[in-house]
Write a structure and sequence with these properties.
Number of helices: 15
CATH architecture of the largest domain: 3-Layer(aba) Sandwich
Strand order of the largest sheet: 8-7-9-6-10-11-12
CATH superfamily of the largest domain: Mur-like, catalytic domain
CATH class of the largest domain: Alpha Beta
Structural class: alpha/beta
Number of domains: 3
Distance between the termini: 55 Å
Largest sheet: 7 strands, mixed
Oligomer: single chain
CATH topology of the largest domain: UDP-N-acetylmuramoyl-L-alanine:D-glutamate ligase
Helix content: 25-40%
């Protein structure tokens, strides 16, 4: 592998993805020339182009700029979502270029920084963004590759010329996190997901165990109480919401729309901390983040200020409208556990109100593997609207459709609609609390829905 410092040009195939766009910004900040391909124009690709990074949207070798056709100084990065018959990807592979997965590049970077890696089938984007914010707002600062757009900084990439700390999400998809060499690793959850890749829940757990063994020799593992990592040879700490362990909270209350609690750690207790992100699952994510920065030596004053000033991540329980008459929240939830957490948080914040959910299933395989669980969690809503399954990289599976899922949902008011029909049906007069949920392209409905509700 060529040293990343010797690279002058970086070409990204799938540049519009949240992780890929972060790498594009990183290399541009390092003074490299950066360009790439993506299938469709999005807000992220628009932002990259505004930053001077050229992007094109047709798989066409002739569209690759001349500057990226030198094998000696060009690095090509691709995402596993790119199909194997992609002509640009095969051009680079067949002509002697350095071609790496996004995860491999992050793995190389993790060797050069003091790295905090956050893994988990749920919660890693929020947890990593809290860690990054706590460090960024402290004297230590950090670099960070985030899996979402931080509301505090309006970006998915943080860079620092003064800090050797790096925060990165450790993505379990395609076993990508096994390229990382973290100094501190957090594991938030290990649920059955990506079974199209792993085949079984046991294989997922084995892969997470392999990830913990990637921690550097003197590194630290922080994991949610109850996960089976107690036999690790690394220094390790447990955390939970309110069960006694190494890091946990007590005396939790809600004041002026924010959580207040005491936070317990091996070194003592911090009293009356404030955290404004809705949902108890996010408070637990904050405990995990606290554990990491506590190990890095942040002071109580820095932690107190950082937790109180954290504003969240876009599309993670993002509140767009909140009035006495109308609430609209958008969330990235795409697994039954995440939907359950989202709905529970809404019920906690808005008791007694009618909650309607619009959900776009993500992947035929995930819908197949969790059909009954999806139906059960969606049935806790007062009204359910499903969109068709967003396929991403998959071919349809016979019998696995949104219609089949809808049949299993027991909510009295339910239906299947197109995105156009959903938007046409949106009115403020028949909406109390509205949720949009999913990891596909349902985010394209957020701005139009908000506009219609406020019109």
């Amino acid at each position: 592998m060529k040293g990343l410092t010797n690279i002058q040009a970086v070409y990204l195939i799938g540049i519009g993805g949240i992780g890929m766009s972060g790498l594009a910004r990183y290399f541009a900040a390092q003074g490299k020339i950066v360009s790439g391909y993506d299938r469709t124009s999005t807000e992220l690709t628009n932002e990259l182009e505004s930053a001077g990074i050229s992007v094109h949207f047709q798989d066409n070798v002739s569209a690759i700029p001349y500057e990226f056709k030198n094998t000696d100084n060009t690095l090509v990065i691709y995402t596993p979502a790119v199909p194997s018959n992609h002509s640009e990807l095969n051009y680079f592979r067949n002509n002697g270029f350095e071609v790496l997965k996004r995860s491999q590049v992050l793995g190389e970077l993790s060797k050069t920084y003091n790295t905090v890696a956050v893994a988990g089938t749920h919660g890693k984007t929020t947890t990593s963004s809290i860690v990054a914010h706590l460090l960024r707002s402290s004297s230590k600062d950090c670099n960070a590759f985030l899996g979402g757009i931080s509301t505090n900084y309006n970006t998915n990439l943080l860079t620092s010329t003064s800090s050797n700390l790096m925060v990165v999400e450790a993505d379990e998809f395609d076993r990508s996190f096994l390229t990382l060499s973290p100094d501190i690793a957090i594991v938030t959850s290990v649920d059955a997901d990506h079974l199209d890749i792993y085949g079984s829940a046991d294989e997922i757990l084995n892969s997470f165990q392999d990830f913990t063994e990637r921690i550097t020799e003197n590194g630290t593992l922080i994991y949610r109480l109850g996960l089976p990592f107690s036999d690790t040879k690394k220094k390790n700490f447990t955390y939970s919401l309110n069960e006694k362990c190494d890091y946990y909270i007590s005396n939790i209350s809600v004041e002026s729309g924010k959580y207040k609690f005491d936070l317990h750690s091996p070194s003592g207790t911090m009293k009356d901390l404030t955290f404004g992100m809705p949902g108890l699952h996010n408070v637990e994510n904050a405990v995990a983040a606290f554990a990491a920065v506590d190990q890095l030596g942040l002071s109580e004053a820095e932690i107190r200020i950082g937790l109180a000033s954290y504003k969240g991540v876009k599309r993670r329980f993002e509140v767009h409208i909140n009035t006495e008459q109308l609430v609209y929240i958008d969330d990235y939830a795409h697994h039954p556990t995440e939907i359950s957490a989202c709905v529970s948080s809404v019920r906690e914040l808005f008791p007694g109100r009618k909650v309607k959910g619009i959900f776009q299933p993500h992947l035929f395989s995930r819908t197949k593997d969790h059909m009954n669980e999806f139906a059960e969690t969606l049935s806790t809503l007062d009204e359910v609207t499903l969109l068709e399954i967003y396929p991403v990289r998959e071919e349809p599976i016979i019998g696995i459709t949104s219609s089949a899922l809808l049949e299993k949902v027991t909510a009295q008011n339910k239906g299947l609609q197109s995105k156009t029909a959903v938007l046409d049906a949106i009115t403020a007069s028949n909406t109390d609390v509205l949720l949009t949920m999913g990891a596909g392209d349902i985010d394209q409905l957020v701005s139009p829905i908000k506009a219609k509700l406020l019109s």
